[in-house]
Each structure stands twice: as structure tokens, then as C-alpha cells.
Design goal:
The chain has six domains: 65 residues, Helix Hairpins; 231 residues, D-amino Acid Aminotransferase, Chain A, domain 1; 129 residues, OB fold (Dihydrolipoamide Acetyltransferase, E2P), CATH 2.40.50.140; 85 residues, 5' to 3' exonuclease, C-terminal subdomain (DNA polymerase, domain 1, Orthogonal Bundle); 87 residues, 5' to 3' exonuclease, C-terminal subdomain (DNA polymerase, domain 1), CATH 1.10.150; 68 residues, Rossmann fold. Helix content is 35%, strand content 20%. The protein is built from 24 helices and 24 strands. It binds 2-(butylsulfanyl)adenosine (IVH). 2-(butylsulfanyl)adenosine binds next to strand 3, strand 8 and strand 11.
Length: 721
């Protein structure tokens, strides 16, 4: 990079052209050094900065994008793992204290170490200790160039592309920010977002996450940044690494500066001097903790003045000027009275521990999920041990229960000394406890490993699955029939009376007819009544026509959530077309199969599940009966504007988009009469590539397909602002 690159806003067109030429050359040289000779001459950060500058200039002058532009060749193949990053300054951890006395001890030691402090008491910041994962984000000349996880404190992982997708983290800093600054803080997932994500995972029959912290970590460590982008991660800034010029001389001043630069900072941060005030703040936050949107596990006290921090310095792994006052773990001991198996809509067998009621952090806990067979044995999702050897869970065991991150009760560990002599290892059923069909663990085709979920193979035969299917069918985002919720389905499913029984979705719509000729009237059943029965029938009738996407979602196809249902509706338009195409795709080959896979947002696993569903005659039988009663409306085809420059073209969006979400991009393209696809093929007309684009971009180049930047896209379609 030149010593002092001219700000991009100040470049003339001619200068921009020369600069792009220079950047293309320099980046290509470095690519060669990096890949070919294994001897990079510049740091990753400097290299990223070159690429960023190239992109930014191209964004301003899209007409100048070169044939050999480095933006057309971003990132080559995706990395198998994250590249290591050595922190310019180590990321240390904090000492923990648990009691008020220890806090007094900490404050006392600060005074003792510093000796006499002329005419003032020492101020501290008190900041909530966010339970997420720490990150260091490097900015050079005001631009985000690098982001790394803490790792072992010395070396972390390069997660730059993923961090760029977090909207709370600015990509650019204001002009007055120092030339080099590393902002450090905590990435976390808010509790409501965690719960919503888990609900979605469950709905789609996927493995749910244990707590927001692990989910945040897992979401950040995705090799595909578009996955991270969907996860709603958040951030609080509270520290810094390398910095070329200090903007403040206190911790509180630094936090204020970060806020000014556009970073979220925690509103519960205080500057306090007296120990009593620190403790009062800690206890106050402790009380509010449950109501916060995010998990915290303590309060961090830091000496406010940075000159005093410098004098106090560090012990081997932690600073002398700070300590973490942890909240007591919300744990309790109780007994596993029984282990029940619940069977879900997709047949997943979930073991649930029935616990002797116990209060954990103010909430009575009686049940806790044990997740799956491996968890009971003490084996984690990737096959690694998660407890000490022999610490499996058995009925009768005394266990440690924790409300993980205030959200879901968890069984953490067993107290072996209290294990009853006759306790036997839990034998996970190999048959469905409801229908008796075989229960199996499928093999993941990609990894060859056994799935952690054990599934009932009974499908339609299994009453549990059938009932859960019905509950899904009437749920809020599916048929949403007022007066027909989970409780009522239990009743209608169990009843032996033919004129009332609902076992499959079509039965819902024949209920009134069957009741008409019946001696046993629903209105005489406890919990119903004349008015409510009339209302129920009306509510059922009101749903005899329904939007196609809701209809598809209601079918409860494995892996098909609302988003996929919408994609299918938009792509096939009518139910008949969908069914016809899915039958044609049987065997997962041929044109219909390719078309399905080409829908942007539908991956192979999901595609397989859809094709399998429509090629199971029993499913088609039920759907045929259902279609006797209801009419799914044809999907609204986005209005096609034939005059747009992209009308009739097939477009692929790839890489991370910065001015619009993927869904927005697709909707926009479709509004303009274009089709969007998820993969690049000969049929593709145009590829819009954002940073981080990989194999799709390479493919496009191989096939000689036109590739443009996101900004060039806006210029092309004339909707840029
Ligand atoms: S300061 C040198 N402040 O706690 C001190 N850490 O146990 C650097 N954490 O790795 C850390 N909230 O992940 C600091 N307000 C806060 C924090 C905080 C959460 C985490 C951070 C750190 C760990 C140390």
C-alpha cells in the first residue's frame, strides 16, 4: 500500500483508474506469494485493507471495475478452518471473586499496591460481565480489517467475514478515530433471539442449542458467513488492544468514546468509588439479571484511571487493576425420578428427566431435557466427552441442575457418591415408546457419523407423530384455526367417537358433517358448548381457502419451515405444479431435481426431504383427501416488469451483501422480472458478488458469466440510493 493513500471520496476518476490498476497488480502479487510460494510479504490485515480499498473504489466508480479486478476473485476456495491470528496484545482473562469480602480485599489491594494517592479516592467502573465470547476487531484508517476470537489469549481465529455480518459492529469508524485501533468486547446472542432460533430448529426437526452463549460461539464460528448473518448476533464494546493514539485517559472515557464511534456499550456501566457502592450496584444488577435481554454472569470492576492501571500492571494472566465479581451459579441438587421419552413431529425421541421439584434461582424446576442418548452417556455432539468418565445419568441419580443462562434448565452432572446401588445405566429405547416402530440413529451422509437424534421410523403409523403433525397443522403460522389448539387436538385425537375423532388433517374439515348426523353432540362435551362449537366450525370454514405457502408449511415436511415453504410457493406457483415437479424429481436426479436444488435457499438435505415426502404414497393419500376439502390459493407471482434490464434473466447472489439482505435482494430481483438461483450454472446470466464470495464466483468465471458488485447491481437496476 502507498504510504498515505488518498481518501476514496477525494479521488478523481482518472486517479481511481490508476489506483485500481495498481491495487489489482499488488493484490495479485501477494496472492501469488501467499498461495504459490508460501511466503507472504504483508500481514493479513494489510492484505485485507488492500482488498477493502479496491472494493470501496469500485463501489464509487462501478464503471471502472477491471476485467482482472481482485473483487472478482475473492477468497479463492473457502478455508477448511479459520486462519490463526496472533493478537498484537494478548487477550487476558480476569480473576474471579465471589463474596463481598473478596471485593473489599480487591479494592484494599489496589490501594496498598499504589501506596499514597494524593487527595482523591480511586474510582472504579462497574460493568456487567456479559456471558458471550470475546472478540478483537481491528480497524486501520477507519476501516474494519480484521476480527479474531480470543482463542488461547495469544492466538485466536480469523473470523473477519463473519464479524462483518454483525450489524451492530460498524465497518467504518468516524474520521477522528486513531489510525490503528483494536476494539475488544463481547459478542452475544439475546435471549429472545436464542429462543426463537431454537423454536425454529425444533420446528424444522433439527438439533436445538443448549444456551445463548454456545449458540453465539457456534454462530460466529460458521465457515459460511451467510449463516452467521442470519443469527442476529450482538455486541458490547468494553476494552481495546493495539491503539495508535489514546482518545481518553480513563476506562469510562474509553467506553464513552466507543459509544461515540458507533459501538454498543452497556447501559448498566457505572463509575463508582466506595466499596459499598460497588457492592450495591452488584446486588442491584443481580436482582435485575433475569429480566435483562442477555445473559450476564457477574460484574467486572476496573480501576478507572488508565495511568493507575498502567502502574498496577498485570500478574501472569490477569490484570491487577480489575476483577470479576461473579454471581453465584444458579445450581441445585435434586433427583432424577424418571426418564420419559417424548416423540416429536419428525419422530425425534427426546429423553426428558422428571425431577424431584427443586428451586433454582427462584424458579421451580421439575423437568429438564436430556437431549439425546449420547448426552445421557456423557458424550457431546461431536463425539467428545462432556463429563468425567462414568458420569452417565441414571434413574435415581442425584444430579446437579442448572438454569443455563436463565433460560433452560439443564442437568449438568451426577453425584456418584449418592448413586443408588441398584441404579442401572439408562437403556435408550430402540423402539418408539408410542407406536413400537424401530427407532434408529441415522448416519450423516457427509460425515459418516451417527446422528445424535434417535428417530422413530413409524411415520404415519406413529400416533405421537400423527398428533404432533396435527398440532403443527393448526399452529399459528400454519392453519391457525381459532378454538383448535394443542389442548383440543389432544381431545379430538384421543376420542373413540367416530363423529368427533380427528386423526389426520382432512378430518378437521369433515368434523361438522360427521357431527350433523350424530347422537353424541360436541356441544354436550365438557369444555365445549353451543356457541363455542359454532365458532369452531366457522373458524374451520374460514380456512377452506389458504395461501399456498401456509398450506405447504402446514404439511409438516421435515426441514421445511416457513421460509422454505414460501420459496416453494413462489417457485412453483400452485400446489399441483409443486406435486408434479416433486414426483418428477423422484430419485433425486433429472431436470426437476436440478430445478429444486437451484432455488436459492434450498440446500440438498432439505431438497431430499421434500422429494421423499411427495413420493410417499401415504402422504399423497392424505393430501388428496385434504384437497377435497380445502383450496390452496395460487401464489402471488411477483409483478414482472418487462422493461427492467434484468427481466427474464437468472441471477445468483453470493458473498455477503452489505446494502440489502439476501431475501431483500431476491425479492428485488424477482420484482424486476428476474429469476434467482442458488447455484451457478450455464443457465445463469449474472452473478452479484459481495465480499467473501467463493466457489460460486470461481464457477462463474470458469463459465464466463458476468459478475458485478452489489453497488454495480444498484446502478444497473436504478434503485440505488
Ligand atoms: S475486561 C484484561 N470487561 O470475561 C481484561 N471482560 O473472565 C479484559 N467479559 O475474556 C476483559 N464482560 O470475555 C471485561 N465488561 C467486561 C466483560 C468481560 C465479559 C468476559 C471476556 C473476558 C472474560 C474474562
Amino acid at each position: 500500500m502507498s504510504d498515505d493513500p488518498k481518501p476514496i471520496e477525494a479521488l478523481t476518476k482518472a486517479e481511481a483508474k490508476t489506483e485500481l490498476e495498481r491495487l489489482a497488480g499488488e493484490i495479485a502479487r501477494n496472492d501469488e506469494l501467499y498461495h504459490g510460494k508460501d511466503a507472504p510479504k504483508i500481514s493479513d490485515a494489510a492484505y485485507d485493507a488492500l482488498k477493502q480499498r479496491n472494493l470501496a473504489i469500485e463501489a464509487r466508480f462501478p464503471e471502472l471495475v477491471r476485467e482482472d479486478s481482485p473483487s472478482k476473485n475473492v477468497g479463492a476456495a473457502p478455508l477448511p478452518t479459520f486462519a490463526p491470528v496472533t493478537h498484537s496484545r494478548p487477550m487476558l482473562s480476569l480473576d474471579n471473586v465471589f463474596s463481598d469480602e473478596e471485593v473489599q480485599g480487591f479494592v484494599g489491594s489496589v490501594y496498598r499496591f499504589l501506596g499514597q494517592i494524593p487527595d482523591e479516592s480511586i474510582a472504579f467502573t462497574a460493568e456487567p460481565k456479559i456471558d458471550g465470547l470475546s472478540i478483537s476487531i481491528r480497524y486501520e484508517n477507519g476501516t474494519l480489517v480484521n476480527a479474531a476470537t480470543r482463542g488461547d489469549g495469544t492466538t485466536g481465529e480469523n473470523v473477519t467475514a463473519n464479524v462483518r455480518t454483525i450489524s451492530e459492529i460498524p465497518n467504518e469508524l468516524p474520521k477522528d478515530a486513531p489510525e490503528v485501533v483494536e476494539i475488544r468486547g463481547e459478542i452475544y446472542m439475546a435471549k429472545p433471539d436464542f429462543l426463537a432460533l431454537n423454536a425454529r430448529m425444533e420446528e424444522e426437526g433439527k438439533q436445538t442449542y443448549v444456551n445463548p452463549r454456545n449458540t453465539a460461539a457456534g454462530s460466529l464460528r460458521q465457515l459460511d458467513p451467510t449463516v452467521t448473518a442470519k443469527r442476529k448476533l450482538k455486541f458490547f464494546a468494553y476494552a481495546w488492544g493495539e491503539i495508535s493514539e489514546m482518545p481518553a485517559d480513563t476506562q469510562s472515557g474509553m467506553i464513552e468514546t466507543f459509544a461515540r464511534w458507533g459501538f454498543p456499550t452497556n447501559p448498566l456501566t457505572r463509575r463508582l468509588s466506595r466499596v459499598e457502592d460497588l457492592l450495591a450496584h452488584y446486588h442491584e444488577i443481580g436482582l435485575e439479571r433475569g429480566e435483562l435481554d442477555y445473559d450476564i454472569d457477574g460484574v467486572v470492576y476496573k480501576v478507572d484511571r488508565l495511568d493507575l492501571q498502567a502502574r498496577l500492571g498485570f500478574r501472569s494472566r490477569s490484570p491487577r487493576w480489575a476483577t470479576a465479581h461473579k454471581f453465584p451459579a444458579e445450581q441445585a441438587f435434586t433427583e432424577i425420578e424418571n426418564i420419559d421419552i417424548q416423540v416429536g413431529r419428525t419422530g425425534a425421541l427426546t429423553p426428558v428427566a422428571r425431577l424431584k421439584p427443586v428451586t433454582v434461582g427462584g424458579v421451580v424446576v421439575t423437568n429438564a431435557t436430556l437431549h439425546n442418548a449420547d448426552y445421557i452417556k456423557g458424550i457431546g455432539n461431536s463425539g467428545e466427552p462432556i463429563r468425567e468418565e462414568d458420569h452417565d445419568f441414571r434413574i435415581g441419580d442425584t444430579v446437579v441442575v442448572q438454569r443455563a443462562g436463565d433460560v433452560i434448565p439443564q442437568v449438568l452432572d451426577v453425584v456418584l457418591e449418592k448413586r443408588p446401588k441398584d441404579a442401572k445405566p439408562y437403556a435408550f429405547p430402540d423402539k418408539c415408546p408410542v407406536c413400537g416402530s424401530h427407532a434408529v440413529r441415522e448416519k450423516n451422509e457427509k460425515t459418516g457419523k451417527l446422528d445424535s437424534v434417535t428417530r422413530c421410523t413409524g411415520g404415519f403409523v406413529c400416533a405421537a407423530q400423527a398428533k404432533e403433525h396435527l398440532k403443527h397443522f393448526v399452529s399459528r403460522n400454519a392453519y391457525d384455526i381459532e378454538g383448535l389448539g394443542s389442548k383440543q387436538i389432544d381431545f379430538f385425537f384421543e376420542t373413540e367417537n367416530d363423529t368427533m375423532r380427528i386423526r389426520t388433517a382432512p378430518d378437521i374439515f369433515t368434523l361438522e358433517k360427521r357431527q350433523a348426523g350424530s347422537m353424541t353432540k360436541l356441544e354436550n362435551i365438557d369444555g365445549f358448548g353451543k356457541v363455542s362449537v359454532r365458532k369452531l366450525f366457522d373458524a374451520i370454514d374460514a380456512r377452506r381457502t389458504i395461501a399456498l405457502n401456509r398450506f405447504i408449511y402446514a404439511l409438516g415436511i421435515r426441514h421445511v419451515g416457513e421460509t422454505t415453504a414460501k420459496l416453494l410457493a413462489r417457485s412453483y406457483g400452485t400446489y399441483d405444479e409443486l406435486e408434479k415437479a416433486m414426483k418428477a424429481a423422484n430419485g433425486c436426479t433429472g431436470e426437476a431435481w436440478d430445478d429444486l436444488n437451484n432455488i436459492d435457499g434450498i440446500g440438498e438435505v432439505v431438497a431430499r426431504a421434500i422429494v421423499e415426502f411427495f413420493n410417499e404414497p401415504r402422504n399423497i393419500g392424505v393430501i388428496d383427501d385434504l384437497l377435497e376439502e380445502v383450496t390452496p390459493e395460487a401464489a402471488e407471482i411477483p409483478a414482472i416488469s418487462s422493461s427492467s434490464p434484468v427481466a427474464g434473466k437468472t441471477i445468483v447472489f453470493t458473498g455477503s451483501l452489505e446494502r440489502m439482505s439476501r431475501d431483500e435482494a431476491k425479492a428485488m430481483a424477482e420484482r424486476l422480472g428476474a429469476k434467482t438461483a442458488g447455484s451457478v450454472s450455464k443457465k445463469t446470466d449474472l452473478v452479484v458478488a459481495g465480499p467473501g464470495a467463493g466457489s460460486k464466483l470461481t464457477k462463474a468465471e470458469e463459465l464466463g458469466i458476468e459478475v458485478i458488485t452489489e453497488d454495480a447491481w444498484f446502478d444497473l437496476v436504478g434503485e440505488g440510493a
